[in-house]
Design brief:
The protein is α+β, with helices and mostly antiparallel strands. The protein is 23% helix and 47% strand. The chain has three helices and 15 strands. It has a 13-stranded antiparallel sheet with strand order 1-2-3-4-5-6-7-8-9-12-13-14-15, with helices on one face. It has a two-stranded antiparallel sheet with strand order 10-11. Strand 2 and strand 3 form a beta hairpin. The protein is globular.
């Protein structure tokens, strides 16, 4: 998540440069669009990694028979993690440093029917975390389609999984991703004078509108221990898709770009009438 924040900060610098040097040429425009796309991909992958994936993992653990619970736990969670049952339909994933994810079942423990929902509160480890303190709803829409949306309506994705039923994991699963919304990035700088400290908060807004579904597979690669969760891959490789992006600072200044995925290694960026292909 820190990586995506750094990307957005770089993006703001690029926006400022682009605004001051309009005559610099096509490369700067598409470079800015590339930064916007990289930041958006980080946000999407972090949403899958830190909310959707552990929600399915946790649900699999709650439903596993007693003889399989340790097997499921070891497969998806680090040994330092604790899972606490808050009630018969609510759980919390936590470490010795605090909670990470709270999950409650809104419509009973059986999510196999359309309309079944999980209510999720993500608590990040960093104050600048993009997903920090956002309440998400993960809903079964039927036919292998799940919707992940923020309760305030600012973020929405529809995930069509290449399987029916409730997955234990999205790793290795064919995904089709649609949706629209906005990620709010927060950078916090602390200024201290003696014993008095003040925080300076800078916000950046990255809105998105998926115009052609993003298709891809979260393929296993090196086994990673990232934060609380054991994961096989941190970044999803899209093979196709098209998205309209807009990056704005707090003053409403920014840029818009349309990005089309041509392959897992190449994208096409359109900005202000300039079209250019770039390697990912």
């Amino acid at each position: 998540m820190k990586n995506s924040i750094k990307i957005i900060l770089l993006l703001i610098t690029a926006l400022a440069m682009a605004g001051c040097e309009v005559g610099e040429g096509e490369l700067m425009k598409t470079k800015t669009g590339h930064l916007m796309y990289n930041g958006w991909c980080d946000d999407v992958n972090n949403l899958l990694l830190q909310v959707v994936e552990p929600a399915f993992n946790l649900y699999a653990w709650t439903q596993a028979p007693e003889g399989r619970k340790q097997e499921v736990f070891s497969k998806y969670f680090r040994s330092s993690i604790e899972i606490e049952e808050l009630s018969d339909r609510a759980w919390i994933i936590s470490t010795n440093q605090g909670s990470l994810l709270r999950m409650s079942l809104e419509y009973g423990p059986d999510l196999s029917l359309p309309g079944g929902q999980m209510r999720l509160l993500y608590v990040g480890s960093s104050r600048g975390d993009v997903l920090n303190d956002i309440i998400f709803i993960l809903e079964n829409k039927g036919d292998g389609v799940w919707e992940i949306r923020s309760e305030d309506g600012s973020i929405r994705f529809e995930l069509a999984l290449g399987i029916s039923g409730i997955p234990e994991s999205v790793v290795g699963t064919v995904l089709s991703v649609e949706g629209q919304g906005m990620f709010t990035h927060k950078a916090i700088y602390r200024h201290c004078s003696g014993d008095v400290c003040e925080d300076e908060v800078t916000l950046t807004f990255l809105s998105y509108d998926i115009r052609q579904p993003f298709e891809g597979v979260w393929n296993p690669s090196d086994r990673l221990e990232l934060g609380a969760f054991v994961k096989e891959s941190r970044r999803m490789g899209f093979v196709s898709g098209k998205v309209g992006l807009q990056a704005l600072d707090e003053n409403g200044v920014g840029n818009a770009a349309t990005v089309t995925v041509l392959s897992p290694e190449e994208i096409e960026i359109e900005m202000d009438g300039v079209v250019q292909r770039r390697k990912i």
